[in-house]
Design a protein that fits this description.
The chain has 20 helices and 18 strands. By secondary structure, it is α+β, with helices and mostly antiparallel strands. Strands 10, 11, 12, 13, 14, 15 and 16 form a 7-stranded mixed β-sheet that branches. Helix 1 crosses helix 2 and helix 19 packs antiparallel against helix 20. Helix 16 links the parallel strand 13 and strand 14. It folds into 2 domains: about 260 residues, Periplasmic binding protein-like II (D-Maltodextrin-Binding Protein, domain 2, 3-Layer(aba) Sandwich), CATH 3.40.190; about 220 residues, Roll (Dipeptide-binding Protein, domain 3), CATH 3.10.105. The protein is globular.
């Protein structure tokens, strides 16, 4: 919801009152009344007001427990369907209102959620059997069943859902055959043994599965899914929550909605804040103003506003486990050319981009893998440090490669479109890229096309772009999640880059039954070096996240992998 600054009618200029355009009379009259009362109290009833405030202190303290938490989100979620959610805004909304077999504690550690306990796999790490808590309930009081997870997992992998996150479950037995339409979803390695017992059967071990179950995989209410089908999750009335909060007042186009405490949530007694009001605020200046005025208690910042709040004790800054990169449509003639992609990589001074343009704490990319995404099983060294810096700024090399590409393509000029989300961060990054590319790649016209994140993702998924300023945020510490973005067999490879050598490397990386942990690590290093050198994707920067959090609110913590969970928040 855009912030509406209050300007009053000029006819009331002497007393400082103006009616805002489009504001109804009821609101306006209330404003006049409040102003008059403030003046009267200030002039005539100061002592009485002080006495009254002193007398009602106890009442105010009691009511603070019912006070709503007001927060912002930087863009509009695309869906509330957990099986197909592929954008960060949707994932954020779903994480506040749903709970998986596992969940994250306040410090980001994986713990039991809907499942009674954390389980150890059997059959050489390929079979997980979960018992669902008897107290686990949907918002209408119905029990959460094993079938609700089966429904969700099957829909996620069903090719008809066109889920962008289907491959998060690619280690389930018969995943490939189901995705290819060669087998029914009933053949998938997910079974409801009875109402409260769920069994997952994998084709090979997946040591990072607990992270996925805690951050990405949630149940869907089976009877509602049967009723709405592909329309499930398109609004708050076409979905249901079983997490700490239920979703209220959301549709695909609304700019504000609420999370209301789910009284049937199994751990409801420990949820301290009964309502969270969310509004979409894309402009960081507006976010900062809303926070400063006390209208929101949590908001995210970017760019200059992070710099301006550097000494503000209410700002929390953390490197995010996410990477921004350029995707090049491999199905189009110009962007299919390897030298074109490499030229774009060389025109980017990543240090200047992060320090001078973004100014938000983001870190210059060294490869496709962000810092903190995994450690060498033998030495403990961070993956990005182990691989080293594979990227460099070399405008002369960029010009050389671009001119060679033009000769290969038989062209003298080219016009390309850069697709971005309409956020402050992406707009600034895109403008920098446009300037650098047109300066060092003669004959290139690069135009910027900005749009809401959900639309950007839809265009990217459909291959309706030339170059896409995209990003990926992982929910588990394993470099393969970023490497898959360039794997031709992956559902999240929007480039459709089809490189046989890289695809074979990814196939070996996924073969956890054959390769040791160290062998797999070395294969991931090789894959990272190869995709970066070939510019299958062009890494730009590891994102940082900065939040302003009111000193009146406790319990909101941020980690590299996760944002704060409102179910742990409380008023101080």
């Amino acid at each position: 919801m855009r912030e509406k600054t209050r300007w009053y009618r000029e006819s009331f200029a002497l007393v400082g009152l103006r009616k805002p355009t489009g504001t109804d009379d009821f609101f306006y009259l209330n404003e006049m009344r409040d102003w008059i009362m403030k003046k009267l109290v200030g002039l005539s009833f100061g002592l009485l007001a002080i006495a009254a405030l002193a007398g009602c202190g106890t009442t105010q303290a009691k009511s603070s427990a019912d006070k709503a938490l007001d927060v912002t989100m930087i863009g509009n979620p695309a869906t509330a369907d957990p099986a197909i959610s592929g954008d960060s805004n949707s994932s954020s909304m779903i994480a506040q209102t749903q709970e998986g077999l596992y969940t994250l504690d306040q410090n980001g550690k994986v713990v039991a959620g809907v499942a009674e306990k954390m389980v150890k796999p059997t059959h050489n790490g390929t079979v997980y059997t979960f018992k669902i808590k008897k107290a686990a309930k949907w918002a209408n009081g119905d029990p959460v069943t094993a079938q609700d997870f089966v429904t969700s997992f099957q829909w996620q992998i069903n090719p008809q859902s066109k889920s962008q996150v289907a491959n998060k479950l690619k280690f389930l037995k018969n995943y490939d055959a189901v995705q290819a339409g060669k087998k029914s979803v009933s053949a998938l390695g997910v079974k409801a043994l009875d109402k409260s017992t769920l069994q997952l059967t994998l084709s090979k071990p997946q040591p990072w599965l607990p992270d996925i179950l805690a951050t990405s995989e949630y149940p869907m209410k089976t009877d509602l899914f049967k009723k709405y089908g592909s329309k499930y999750g398109t609004s708050s009335t076409k979905t249901m929550s079983e997490g700490a909060y239920k979703l209220v007042g959301w549709s695909g186009t609304t700019d504000s909605w609420s999370y209301v405490k789910n009284t049937h949530y199994w751990n409801a007694k420990n949820v301290k804040i009964g309502k969270v009001n969310v509004q979409v605020v894309k402009d960081p200046g507006t976010s900062a103003s809303l926070f400063k005025s006390g209208k929101v208690q949590e908001t995210s910042l970017t760019g200059q506003y992070i710099k301006q709040n550097a000494n503000n004790q209410e700002m929390k800054t953390t490197l995010n486990s996410s990477m921004r990169f350029l995707e090049f449509n491999d199905k189009k003639t110009v962007t299919h050319n390897t030298k074109v992609r490499q030229a774009f990589s060389y025109v980017v001074d990543r240090t200047a981009l992060t320090k001078n343009v973004l100014q938000d704490g983001s870190a210059a990319a060294k490869s496709l893998i962000p810092y903190g995404d995994g450690n060498d099983p033998t030495t403990g060294k961070d993956f990005s440090e182990d691989v080293g810096n594979l990227l460099s700024y070399n405008p002369k090399k960029a010009t050389q490669l671009w001119n060679e590409a033009k000769k290969e393509l038989g062209i003298k000029k080219a016009s390309l479109e850069l697709l971005t989300a309409d956020t402050d961060e992406q707009k600034h990054a895109a403008q920098y890229l446009q300037q650098q590319a047109q300066k060092y790649m003669p004959g290139l016209t690069l135009t910027i096309k900005s749009m809401p994140l959900a639309q950007q993702i839809a265009k990217g998924s459909a291959g309706n772009y030339d170059i896409d300023l995209d990003g990926w945020n992982t929910g588990w510490r394993d470099p393969s999640d970023f490497l898959q973005m360039a794997d031709e067999t992956s559902s999240v490879n929007f480039t459709k880059w089809n490189n046989a050598h890289f695809t074979n490397l990814m196939k070996q990386i996924d073969d956890t039954a054959t390769h040791t942990t160290q062998q797999r690590w070395d294969l991931m290093k090789e894959a990272d070096k190869y995709v970066t050198q070939q510019a299958g994707l062009v890494p730009l920067y590891q994102q940082a996240k900065a939040h302003l959090v009111s000193s009146q609110v406790g319990g909101l913590k941020y980690t590299m992998m996760t944002d704060a969970q409102y179910k742990y928040a409380y008023w101080k």
